[in-house]
Amino acid sequence: MNHNTMVPMIIRLPLLAFCSNLSLSSRSRSTAIHRGVIRIASTAKPTTRAAASVRPSSPSTSALRFDHHHRRLIHSLSLSAQSVDPLKMEIFSSRKEAEEEIFNVIMTDQHTQRTIDAKSAAVKACGDLACQHDSFLKTLTIDDAHIIAWAPYIEQCVEQARTAQQDNHQSKGKGSKDKKKGKCNKSKEAKHQGLGESRSILKFAIVLSDSIFFPTGGGQPCDHGTITFTLKGSHGAGLNEEENNVSIDLLVRDAQNIRQTCILYCQPAAAAASNIDIDVEQMNRMYAPFFLRSPSSPSEENKIRRLSITQNIDWERRFDLMTQHSGQHLCSAVALSQYEIQTHTFSLGEASNSSYIDFVIDQTLSKERAHDVFSMIEERVNQHIRDDMLMTPTWLDPLVEADAVVLREKVRSRLLPKNLTGAIRLVEIKSRGDGDGHGHNDENGEVIDCNTCCGTHVPSLGHLQMIKFFRRERVKPAIMRVHFAAGKRLMRVMEEMHDNQMGITGILSCRDVEQVHRVEQLLEDKRMKEKEMKALKDKLSNFHVTEVVNQCVCVSDNDDGNEASLAVVDLGDVDMSYMTMVANASMEKIDRDGAILVLVGGEDGSDEGSFLLLGNKVVVDQVGKDVAAMFGGRGGGRNGKFQGKGVTLRSALGQVKDFVAKAMKAE
Prior knowledge:
Strand 15 (342-347) and strand 16 (355-360) form a beta hairpin. By secondary structure, the protein is an alpha+beta fold. The strands form 7 sheets. It has a 7-stranded antiparallel beta sheet with strand order 7-14-10-11-12-9-8. It contains 17 helices and 27 strands. It has 3 domains: 3-162 and 181-313, no CATH class; 320-505, Threonyl-trna Synthetase, Chain A, domain 2 (Threonyl-tRNA Synthetase, Chain A, domain 2, 2-Layer Sandwich), CATH 3.30.980; 537-666, Diaminopimelate Epimerase, Chain A, domain 1 (Roll).
């Protein structure tokens, strides 16, 4: 297959990122993706795997909005006048299928239509990635690069429905961090929960020869950032300035370690562009020259343009997470070495400012002793930070006897991943010893921790600045959860605490050092007021009980000699708990099995409020729903008690009284 026949079938690739009408169907042609190359067989034999076909239904779904930069990009990537073949691009219908294809590509030795040279086919395994050798590596550029493996797939998302009231609420700042416009929810029930319409988004699963993006693992969330693919004109290619350097960006929002391979999950950044409409037929050409390159079968395009891949991470996110992770290592190491307290689990608090460590403690440890122990751990931890101890990664091979001895005897380790092969990465914390103060010649430094870990870490503890334990809670008898923060996150936490304290100071009208005393005063005043209110309520309830008993009149005599008595009373501005208390006390004084009480309460001058029926089980259970309807409301109950709320309480009292009395007589 030559390059001219490849282009028409690949220019459909990006369409799914922007087309809302996507359908699943069986493949009409035998297709396969090998190292990023789409192969279409000449036979028409169908395959069994379902795939998504691009079927734009109208100009509205076939138009994209892009700025002037992307219009120039399309122009510069229009490969020398090639006809458009109506072949449809088929992609994987789920992320799982895309991952399977990635490993089919990596594990299968394909000698034709390859996107990489045999010499550059090696893929760095997780544990040996660039980010795990240098955690301060913010960007990585590889010239003359090729994508090891890739697979496009569809992800179903649901745009969250938003109201003007929600937007106005967010504009004030409250909750703005958690409620994002266009939030995606993968749940199938999301649409039925009112979150909005479902849409299909094109994403890419990509494997590069090396990565500065840390994949989720070891308790540390993954990195975010961008990958920029740039086609650079070769020397003497005769390209003008506009054609010489063209690029596209992919947003990396997830990275996973699967079978020791770092897979990056990306979304086209161009989807966020705006201003100018562009036809999808032109948009399709954006990705083909970048993804579908075959050095083993060089084309004219490959000769005149070289592919450069640049990875850029979100440094603020990386530094925050690796600071907290390094802090967790240090806290766990000190707790174990000084007090033999093991770490059960931990969380780096990606969605909040507070991380925590769950320590395994003696169940008999008192609250006072726990305070002393963890205060001493915190002090020792910060002393190590002030000493700027080294934190360095190293690799040991369990198949080498000397390394195996170290792994067995000197390494603190949790359960390693299944099927782990090759060298094991360790992170060591030790003093600087007699070196030059920069980590050189410090072999004789004191080692306080050596732990198996794949995560990113600071090179020395000075980068943590300080660690503070904020709160301790006993989540289980033998588990103490300690919340902490380090570095810049600690500064944010302290700033939030200071802002809260200043707000409380203003509310209490006192100095910050007087806050505790002022709050204690307010609580004592509250207790006294509640005591006074209870005394007044008791006096008022006695008055209302007397009123209810006096208004209880005989409706009829039952066959067994018991009087059927009824009292209908408006208690005024009271709540349901007060009405229940009055009703129970009144029934004790009336002491008649056939009696029924109908009590209502609500704001003075209003017809809305609550109602309560209490008494004869047969009659109350029979008339309860009808009474609720007369009161213009709803309610529920059983066994002689029915309560609810209504909007015509006082205006319907007479009607309810006659209705209940009639029912009592009939009974």
